What does this fold into?
Amino acid sequence: MAVSVAPKAPAATAKVNRRSKGGGMAIAQRRAGLLFVTPYILFFLLLQLAAFAFAIWVSFHHYDLLALDNPFVGLRNYTRLTVNEDFLIALRNTTEYAVVVVILQTAFALLLAVLLNSKIKGRNFFRTTWYTPSVASSVVISMIFLYVYHPTGLLNSILGLVGIHTTEAYLQSTTWALPAIMFLNVWTTAPTFMLMFLAALQDIPKEIYEASSVDGASAARKLFSITIPLLRPIIFLVVSLGIIGAFQIFDQAFIMTKGGPLKATLTVALLIYDNLFVDTGAVGVACAEAIVLGIIIFALTLISRRVIDTKIEY
Amino acid sequence: MSVAGSNVQTELNVPIAVASMTGGRRPGEVGDSTERVNRLEIVVRYALYLVITLFLFVPFVMTVLSSFKTSAEVIAFPPTLLPSVWHPENYLNVLTQISGFPRMVFNSFFVTLVVVALNLFFDSLVGYAFARLEFPFKNTLFAIMIATMVIPGFVFIVPRYIMLLNAHLVDTYFAFMVLYFLQPAYILLMTQFFKSIPRDLEEAAIVDGLGWFGIFWKIILPLARPALLATGILTFQGMWNNFLDWVIYMQSPTMQNIQLGLVSFRGQYQNQWNLIMAGSVLAILPILIIYVAGQKYFVGGAATSGMK
It folds into this structure.
């Protein structure tokens, strides 16, 4: 990840220590430091490390929340995933969803940011209104889009205005349900990433653009030969965060379609939920699915790093 | 966005929030200089901005307008823009028809505010130690924190659920306090901020014999207002909008938040579109007010110090 390295400021602190009476201060500081980070250490040990280890342990067992005995089954929870039809459907849907959403939302976010980064009156107004979809909760967005996608809802009303008359029930259609959820998520996530791109754009030295203007470069040329190459690290960040988010799509599918129609919007996250709460004795399977999902996300993040190549010189 | 992504979502804002606090160029100073802008170009440009604004904002406008219509009118064909008759009583009906609505509002506010308070304290405390104190394993711990931030939340859901179940914390407010009493993303935000404060003040305080906690509490925290506001606002957004954790960890009807309540209401009354829309407006209102009031903490400008 592009997030920075460990904090290094020992020089100044050391100076302070030496000035005050030697070791006493340093020991006090070590003690205070350890005490102050104890909450994080607890968080890490219990909620991350122990939880992660426990997840792996559960994934090797036939685990039932109500059972007293949960027998060891080795890799069976994993190997069975390869022939589990629901899992394969969910994995295909999720991958399809993630690929489309990550590409579209990254491109749309970049477009929005470039537009906001130019000199135009009312910039603040545009920025405020454009960001609103990212402020709303997934539930509110889902409710709004249930209305948008209703056979006589907003989308078909607007289509009617331009002469396309249809009463398609998008969320009940095996063709349209998944794209409908993709669209909704691009719409709501792109503005978040827009802000990250905008912050990075404002960091690009103005002189580079001025020089290229002198050379007579067109706006499109500037976008592809200056802006995008210089934004590589941020593009990588946006793509990785996009992958992490998109592969865990849950809320909207849970609320709007419950994975239907005919499993057209069944995602891995929905399946994990079902295995945990609906099916009995499938908790081990749920853990195996979550770990496989985690590995896929990790691998794809590494691959995208290769592809985007974040090295950059001005 | 999706997910345990409610977390991912808010964490995204961190670098930007840091940037907005640590200064840097104002937005507006920069921009690719458009040479020879002619009139046609301006018209086309504004048309583009307008279309995007409509695209991103009209659904909200229609939601608000729909919340004042009758249910039939919301999905009437041909559609109406403004309500033919305004029905403000829809909002009253939400309060009375959604069973337990006041309790949901309380749950949302209570959990959100407690978690915000916990994060203000713990994120800044840990952040301060990472930024300013020398202690064993500091760099290792910090590296661990950064590395584990990218682990997808779903990996932790099942084990955390079982752990909370065994600790009898499922279906209690404590579940959220345990899971979210600190958030690495905002510890990082606080760390970055503290590193930008000059050291002189602390050095004077050390000579004065104020202990480290005293320095943190009396000298550093008052200076950290912008970072605390960013942490508070972003945590508020994350917790107020949270759906997934409530679905997983809360099971009794009295332990729903407003988001979950909206979903179950819609499950029962599929056709009450006006009430669903009114409920949505109520659910978005607090966070919208905070967004408008604390915009600069969402929408930071300039340098991206958090990500370099």
